[in-house]
Design a protein that fits this description.
By secondary structure, the chain is mainly alpha-helical. The chain folds into 2 domains: 253 residues, no CATH class; 102 residues, no CATH class. It has 23 helices and 2 strands. Strands 1-2 form a two-stranded antiparallel sheet. A hairpin with a 2-residue loop joins β1 and β2.
């Protein structure tokens, strides 16, 4: 048996590897948590670990959730999906078991592991920015190359919390200046990757922290400036989006300059201050586009959308009619943009906030006027939430079982002719997902264990140093409102890794 100090050193090294790999490599992350478990088993000291496990309410909550999901296999029909769900969730059981029955990190070990984690997150943001600047028309979901941009955004939020802790501390000035610059960088990166979740989480967490530390005028000033600046910038972009162009106010013309009839859908969908589907002459669009481009008018752009719809939206964004005159007004660079799939000239500007706001407003326009949801991130979530609520209503007591949630939701979507039918998507809400699987009774039992672990609040505030525990806990809880956080390794590790930095309670 190795000496205790060797097992401790292995624990610290593997924890640093886990912190770095959770945002970079699924393979290394899996290897790290498995080796952590092996080191934990070989270390022994079972009496001490048993005592720590008995006293850890957080561990009781995690083990309780996993056992309830295991019990849910008793009444599930799709056992293959159920066992796969339990396999994916296995780190949720093992990682907290190791961390909560091992002495928490302190001093240089804690600072070293956190430094590795922060530097790795920063390095990934640098890689993402380089990709964003060098790869034309890179979708915002692909800017982060290693994990989901939504999961990565949560890690950016944690880095911001750590930066706030450094700023409010008494460390050397160079360190505090570095923390301030890193915090601004992370905020800007959240806008670059269009992370609505990250921005909302930051706003809510900032408000709660403001309430708990209202005597710190510096924190109040930073929060007011941050929120005021974001709200003002968003309001400006919304105003630009709905600033109607002159053509919109004119009486609708019936024909093009060449005498061919216009089609006016009058569906009310607005983008860039103009009605998207008014002033459309399909005959002239086809002829002029096929003359200007080698890409067939009846074909598709690389993103899978039709050339026609992309062209119509691009011309609309420029305030041009959708006819031969509009296409003729395009310069070669704009033709190339349309061929690459850019549907709005506003997406080509250097302001990522504008693209983020314009994309969200377009989703709203399509939903309000056509009830379309496919292809729209937030609207798809709403549709899946409705399906999950229906499943819960049909099986309120014990749910449909661990493996049948996706199938039951898909049956509902199919019966209601939803655009999402057949896609077998998760419900994008961890709370609804657990309730659909285990019913109100199972969910209530899990909720009791979680609340027992989190309250009273003084237990939560004392559980981790500085500004980490409370904002991290809030981030985990808020993220589960719009994501199946426990459905991926990156999400599970985000919910468990920081338990290593707790204080004994």
């Amino acid at each position: 048996m190795l000496p205790a100090r060797v097992h401790r050193a292995i624990f610290i090294v593997l924890l640093a590897v886990l912190g770095a790999s959770m945002v970079t490599s699924v393979f290394l992350a899996n290897l790290a948590w498995v080796l952590l478990g092996a080191n934990w088993l070989l270390e022994g000291r079972w009496r001490e670990k048993w005592q720590m496990g008995k006293e850890s309410r957080l561990l009781h909550a995690v083990v309780g959730l996993y056992l309830m999901m295991l019990v849910g296999m008793l009444w599930t029909a799709d056992t293959a999906v159920g066992w796969d769900t339990l396999r994916v969730m296995l780190p949720l059981l093992c990682v907290p078991l190791v961390l909560l029955t091992t002495r928490p990190l302190a001093g240089n070990a804690r600072r070293g592991v956190l430094a590795v984690y922060v530097l790795t997150v920063f390095a990934v943001t640098v890689i993402g920015v380089v990709r964003w600047l060098t790869i034309p028309d890179l979708p915002h979901r692909d800017i982060v190359p290693f994990i989901s941009h939504i999961r990565f955004a949560l890690n950016c939020c944690v880095v911001i919390y750590l930066c706030v802790g450094v700023l409010l501390g008494s460390g050397p000035k160079p360190l505090r200046w570095g923390a301030a610059l890193l915090m601004v960088w992370m905020l800007a990166f959240l806008v670059v990757i269009h992370s609505y979740t990250g921005i909302v989480v930051l706003a809510v967490v900032s408000f709660v922290m403001l309430l708990t530390r209202w005597r710190r005028w510096q924190l109040v000033a930073v929060w007011v400036l941050l929120v005021g600046g974001i709200v003002g910038a968003v309001a400006y972009e919304v105003s630009n989006y709905y600033r109607m162009v002159p053509m919109t106010w004119e009486p609708l013309r019936e024909a093009t300059v060449n005498g061919r009839p216009y089609y006016h859908a009058q569906d009310g969908i607005i983008e860039n201050g103009n009605y998207v589907n008014n002033y459309v002459c399909d005959e002239e669009l086809r002829a002029e586009w096929n003359r200007r481009s080698a890409m067939e008018y009846d074909g598709n752009v690389p993103s899978g959308y039709s050339v026609k719809s992309t062209l119509v939206r691009y011309l609309n964004g420029l305030g041009l009619t959708k006819d031969s005159v509009g296409v003729a007004a395009l310069i070669p660079a704009q033709v190339a943009s349309i061929e690459s799939g850019v549907a709005n000239p506003a997406y080509e500007c250097s302001n990522p906030l504008r693209k983020m706001v314009y994309t969200a407003l377009l989703e709203r326009e399509f939903y309000v006027h056509t009830n379309a949801v496919a292809g729209f991130t937030m609207l798809q979530r709403i549709e899946m939430w409705r399906a999950a609520v229906h499943v819960i209503g049909e099986h309120p007591s014990f749910g449909v079982g661990t493996g049948d949630v996706i199938g039951a939701m898909d049956d509902y979507l199919t019966a209601n002719n939803s655009e999402l039918a057949g896609r077998r998507m998760n419900c994008h809400n961890q709370y609804l997902g657990i309730m659909a699987a285990l019913g109100i009774i199972g969910f209530s039992l899990v909720l009791i264990l979680v609340l027992r672990a989190l309250f009273p609040l003084r237990r939560l505030r004392s559980a981790m140093p500085g500004t980490l525990m409370l904002p991290w806990t809030l981030t985990v809880l808020i993220s589960m409102c719009t994501e199946d956080t426990l459905a991926t390794l990156a999400g599970i590790l985000f919910c468990t890794f920081f338990l290593a930095f707790r204080r004994p309670v």
